[in-house]
Amino acid sequence: xxxxxxxxxxxxxxxxxxxxxxxxxxxxxxxxxxxxxxxxxxxxxxxxxxxxxxxxxxxxxxxxxxxxxxxxxxxxxxxxxxxxxxxxxxxxxxxxxxxxxxxxxxxxxxxxxxxxxxxxxxxxxxxxxxxxxxxxxxxxxxxxxxxxxxxxxxxxxxxxxxxxxxxxxxxxxxxxxxxxxxxxxxxxxxxxxxxxxxxxxxxxxxxxxxxxxxxxxxxxxxxxxxxxxxxxxxxxxxxxxxxxxxxxx
Length: 249
Hints:
The chain is mainly α. 78% of the residues lie in helices and 0% in strands.
């Protein structure tokens, strides 16, 4: 009967607040392509699976389980979970930004793709392809397990009841955002260099022979060169991102 004691139920709910908040914004789990009910079931299943390891650490933070203190603990746990999920998502957001820049660099930005997230903006097809590919690879190589392990370790790093520190959270997000965009820029740098060189060559040729519409003539060649560069760098692109994501977790 102790499994159904009020303090045990409240502890499990507090665990669900942190884990559910994380999975609500974590990459892969928060995609709009996954039904909301399925996402809720996943969060419940993970919370119940991890509760035996965490419930004894959460119980002391709840006190007598009444009043404003309990609400404070629950909202703090939810904010911590959202922070962990958002920091995890930053690398995917940086990759999404870089893949949009890549599609514009090689002339494929006019091809619409599928909207994978609830961002409200439809991404180009190439950006959608890369986002779907790296999300699939995250599950294939088992990095989602590292996310769960990080959630368990977070109860040691940020104990329940310690409160949500706003200033360290903002500093953490700023540091991780800088590192994420630097990683994405490093991965997409061959396409940035390609875009600069190709546009310089097209502009220089247009100045030499202004009578010829060089831009319209060169567009198919720019797309072909970009696709060929994508062909020879796609494996390294994915490998570099997965290695960065593994280090990130």
